[in-house]
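Researcher: Re-running this chain for the archive, since the previous output was lost when a drive failed. Same request as before.
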Amino acid sequence: MEVKSYLELRGQLAERDRSLREKVLSLEEAAALVNDGDSVGIGGSTLSRTPMAMIWALIRARKKELSISRSIVSSDGDLLFASGICNHITTSWFSQGIVWGVSKVMRHYVESRKARYDEWSHLAMGMRFKAGAMGVPFLPMRSMLGSDVMRQRPEARQIDCPFTGENLLLVPALNPDVAIIHVQRCDAYGNAQMDGLQFMDIDLAMAANKVILTTERIVSNDQIRRAPDQTKIPFRRRCRGRSAVWLGTARMQRSLRAAIPAHGLLHFACQW
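Model: Regenerated structure tokens:
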């Protein structure tokens, strides 16, 4: 596992586009910002604020060997594995929901060694994104100590706290090449507002080198300024490279699903 150095992160930070300019792109243009082999952080959690339109765009673009990280993965992970664009997912839980158990699609791809699945505790995922956002190589925690999850994660390191002598676990930072986050509203400059739970999205946006936003509504900058406390991802925070904002309503996303080619998804359907 590669953890980026502070100087490397500072170099990427210095290259940020901090200009106040319109960043609205089509899904196809946004998908072109993701390169084969990139590490991609996905915002939201389970079925909440999952950027499905952007995931479908990556599938249509036939991306290859993407490495995905997310707090909790649901049906989005099934699509990513079954479409063939992703060969590695890092998360804390991979399921449609607790009552249905672990994803059958994930089990098929991992047990047949077609893909890799790295499981961390939920807190560990948050701490890893937090470390990436802070620009530090790791953060300490107690979660996972004494658990079988820790035994499966040699990347984490145990230490004795230099102040208290207590046993702590160090988890490495996560700095995705690209973050894909869905929000309720955003202006054309990339000032994003979220309603409800924020999950790990703010840290994810700060940790990533590039951020792609999809949104339910593109609103005026005046509307954003009327409620500045609701702006959780301001344009200056997220523009570490090129960035994109795409407007997608529920109706538009339904039409996108209907237009999806059958590439790789027949096997996904058979698994269920």
